[in-house]
Amino acid sequence: MRIWGKTRGVRVRRGTALSVAGLLAAPALVLGTGTAAQAASCTAAKGPYQKQVEKYLKRPVDGRQSTADCKAIKAFQKTRGITPAAGYAGPVTWNTMKTITAQKAGKKNPNKAKKCPTNKGRIACVDLTRQLSWIQDGKKLKFGPVPVRTGRDGAETRTGAKKIYWRNIDHWSTLYDVPMPYAQFFDGGQAFHSVTKSMYNNPGSAGCVNMRPADAKAYWKLLKNGDDVYVYGRKLGT
């Protein structure tokens, strides 16, 4: 398959398959229960993870939705880019809270479980379960870990050992008609690249590993063609 891409405003034809799976997906209405009308305001509905969410937000844990609970949940959702931000304690909100907790726990030593190979030299690791990525050289951490946004359900970021094979600092996806700055492709159309949306914006990418601009820029400086990439785990909700 052949696709078209752009570099610095000039369209270029690629003979290799780059079925670009970067940004995508309009936010879905994910309440678990509820309606679009509830999404426009603060819902009075009790979510299936009400107690867990109350505990995470240090609210009184009674399992009952209150106005104060809803406002606190909604504020969290807005900050993290969770849509709809309706104050509903559903699976997306709770999964995001669990992911953030796991990310904080792995901040100092993301490869404590030794799931990412340490015998490859320079390697970019991607943990789908924790939505974390980092660069290490042997056992030495070189950059990160940083939060990432990987493939949504049905368009998961593929696991396994990969290598960066093509880089384009100003890539433009003609498939989705969106920019993909600092794109580094490692598996078909799946790549590291910069986005401006929240790393917790649901439902996820179309397969690429989305990164904050500063993190994607750091990866661009640290990695090169031929460098190893290792993807493992499973994103919550997929």
Automatic annotation (TrEMBL):
Q: Which residues form the signal peptide?
A: 1-39
Show the GO MF annotations: peptidoglycan L,D-transpeptidase activity; transferase activity
Q: Where is the active site?
A: H193, C208
Going by the entry's taxonomy, the superkingdom of the source organism is recorded as Bacteria
Q: Where is the L,D-TPase catalytic domain?
A: 121-232
Supply the alphabetized keyword list.
Cell shape, Cell wall biogenesis/degradation, Peptidoglycan synthesis, Signal, Transferase
GO annotations of cellular component type: extracellular region
* GO biological process terms, semicolon-separated: cell wall organization; peptidoglycan-protein cross-linking; regulation of cell shape
- Record pathway: Cell wall biogenesis; peptidoglycan biosynthesis
What PANTHER family does UniProt report for this protein, alphabetically?
A: EXPORTED PROTEIN, L,D-TRANSPEPTIDASE
Write down what this protein is called. Answer: Murein L,D-transpeptidase
